[in-house]
Every structure is written in structure tokens, then in C-alpha cells.
Amino acid sequence: MSQSTESTTESNPFTKPGFIIAAVLVVALLAAGIVIFLLPKGQSDAQPAPPAPGTGSTPAASPSASAAGSSVCGLPTSTETSLGAAPETKWELVGTMAAPTDPQIGPGKTDAQGIRSCFAHTPKGALYAAVNLWALGSDPSKERAIAEQLAAKGPGREAGMKAPLTQAPASSVKIQIAGFNVSYTANQAVVDLAFKADNGALASVRTTLLWQDGDWKGVVADNGAPLEEPRQVRDLSGFIPWSGA
């Protein structure tokens, strides 16, 4: 193989070893139903950095939401800004995915539709909110309720609520949380979650959350598209391993 051909192969993710397996995982992610948050809309391979608070299409936290930082259901608030170890937690099956639950972290509320909300104003609370959001999305019937109740206020939320319901592709591949990283400020968190499929494939997605109205809400772009796309990862290097299944 010529040097130019090797270079082209290396720069093209579609020709890298393991891509086909990883692509199956991405299909499973799309089938999970979290369309307004994580479904790829474009063709770019760029990996944008987490948005800074109050910039771009990320809606700013409302004064009432950020003033005291109180949880809408009375869960704790702390001054912690990092999470360097995997929390010990109880896991519950939500849809087809194991999700964490803790009486001091959340979810503090589960409504008649099964929507899990109200998480602590802490790095752990943001992590639990992100994982529960994914788990809820494994049930396509909750798509509209997720947009209405768990999306941050702004044009993206409105666009997501008006979007046609998704016809998710059928897939026998199941995915579970495998690890995480949390970047945290008082009113915004970026949770990078690693997923593992039952065929061994790995992928990750960054989910941006804002603290609004006493809870963590998922951020989408103004047109309802995601801020991030799923991306292949070779292993869990750089992630804190954490799983419930």
C-alpha cells in the first residue's frame, strides 16, 4: 500500500478497523429514541468543544433558576465542582437501559408517564440526570414527553416539540452505560457518557445540561438538532468506568 493510500485510510473513519461494529452501536443509539438530543442531523465529522455558558445556541439560565439553586423537589445542593470517582448507587431498568437512582441525588420525581426528573444541584445530580435521560429515550413512546419536560427552555425545545415523531430503526443490539466524565459549573454541566453494546462496540456522546427551574435540563440547538453526535471510541481510556448492567 502506498503512503498516500495509507494516509487516506487513516484519515477516513469509515475505513478504520472496528468501524462497522461501532456503526451498529450508533444505529442502536439512534433507535433509543433520544432524537431531539442526540440524533445526528448533519454530515460533519467535527467534534465541537463543550459550549461555554451563555454562548452560541445554549440558552442562559434564568435568574430565578440560578439565584438560589434550590432543587424543585428539595434535593441537596453542594459547592462541589468535580466528580472524580464512580458513585455507589442502585440501578433500575428504565426502558432497556440501567439507570442510577439515589434518594439524595435523584430522580426525585417520576410522573404518570414514567418521566424521571428532579435531580440534585451537584455534579452527581447532573450525571444521574444525563444517564436517566438516555435511559428514558430507550422507550420511543416517551419522545414527546422528553422534549416537553426535560429540554432546556428556548427555540430548540419548541422545535423538538413540533418535530414529527421518529420512526426508530429496528435493532437487536442493546446498549448500556460504561463510563463517564463530568465538566461542571453551578448552572451548566457537560456529561460525556461512554456506551457499550452487547456486541462489545463502544461509542460516546456529550450531553449538555442547564440548571433551570430547579432541575437539570438537556440542551439542544435552536433548530432542535443535537449539540453533539455519537462518536466511536476504541476503549474506556479517559473515562471513569461505571455501569449497572
TrEMBL record:
<keyword id="KW-0812">Transmembrane</keyword>
<keyword id="KW-1133">Transmembrane helix</keyword>
<dbReference type="Pfam" id="PF26526">
    <property type="entry name" value="DUF8175"/>
</dbReference>
<feature type="transmembrane region" description="Helical">
    <location>
        <begin position="20"/>
        <end position="39"/>
    </location>
</feature>
<feature type="region of interest" description="Disordered">
    <location>
        <begin position="45"/>
        <end position="85"/>
    </location>
</feature>
<protein>
    <recommendedName>
        <fullName>DUF8175 domain-containing protein</fullName>
    </recommendedName>
</protein>
<feature type="compositionally biased region" description="Low complexity">
    <location>
        <begin position="54"/>
        <end position="71"/>
    </location>
</feature>
<keyword id="KW-0472">Membrane</keyword>
<dbReference type="InterPro" id="IPR058488">
    <property type="entry name" value="DUF8175"/>
</dbReference>
<feature type="domain" description="DUF8175">
    <location>
        <begin position="57"/>
        <end position="241"/>
    </location>
</feature>
<keyword id="KW-0614">Plasmid</keyword>
